Amino acid sequence: MIWVLFIVFFVALLIGIPIAFALGLASFVYILASDTPMVIIPLKMYSGIDVFVLLSIPGFILAGNIMNNSGMTNRIIAFCNHLIGHIRGGLALANIGASMIFAGISGTAVADTASIGSILIPAMKKEGYKADFASAVTASSSTIGPIIPPSLPMIIAGSLTGLSIGKLFLAGAIPGLLLAIALMGVSYFISVKQGHPKKKKASFKKISHGFLDAFWAILMTLLILFGIVGGVFTPTEASVVAVLYAVFVGLFIYKELKIHDLPKIVLDSTITTASLMVLVGFANLFGWILISEQIPQAIANSLLSITTNKLILLLLINLLLIFVGTFMETIAALLILFPILLKVAVSVGVDPTQFAVIAVLNLIIGLNTPPVGVCLFVASSIGKVPIGKVSRAGIPFLIVSLIVLLIVTYVPEVSLFLPNWLMD
Question: Do residues 76 and 95 lie in contact, with contact meaning Cβ atoms separated by under 8 Å?
């Protein structure tokens, strides 16, 4: 019966059914075909979302939407442009820098691509950058978001396994910074080679003013991270603090957020949260079926039968996760695969916290991997350029992202230094 599950799931994906409902439909057909009691559907869906730490997700989504409607994105971009816009290809570098700061607001790659891209891709085209390069930079830099805290995929990974969310946040900080530096290096090299424009160097006054404007976004990230790490509040409480902070900044500091905007922002955040919770519920049902059919054990045994060498096994897991990430949404892939692969990784001596970073980084790189990387489609739509051109322009960024992935995979200290230093 397990083949029924997979065939229905992949056919549903191929005909364009959203992944949450593809998981649900496949599970429903399996349950009907296997004479499993239907009551298992609500039971397993509810148990999937009945996890306290998942309460932080609607808070972070709402905080991000409030900050976006407060003009925060424009201020982040302006600060980065003042700071590095005078370097050759400075607007592309500002794009990457803005994504790194914006990560503290959204925590998701697709949101980053859409928010930053809608402003910077047209601006870069206007300045003389090729549309495919502008789109590729935006899509590639969005991979920083789910690594640098607060990260929704890290929250999901922690909720699935009981790993410390604070440790996972810290573990992603250095890899995220390393990825940003690598992407900036490639962007600068291409900009010099192609003669991309640069702006006049901003005065210290402009840079200072830009920093003060962007300061509140930076402070929000620090507030969340050090609040959790310092034990001041839990991730769920941190999300509530983030919402209150965002409302205060939007209403009283930037004064661009209006009271009458809040109902629509809350509604949009509720819809996003609801769709995510449906995904979590159906994924838990799907995962229960896999467990009942002993698929996790089969996958683990298959991998371990190929090799028990830690280095080769990690390489195989990386290849599997990148492949899955090209066609499956990050959180859905984590819900289904992370608990399975974590057991395999731990069995050969990989630290669970390090493996969480490896898994998330793999899956978000998959979002920018042809032929069906979601972020590529979003960026190509904004840039009005064919997906093939964006994919080709993004190859250098993909290569350095994979190099960073290998470093994170085979040098544990990159992920574990901060958690071990600050939390052990």
Answer: no
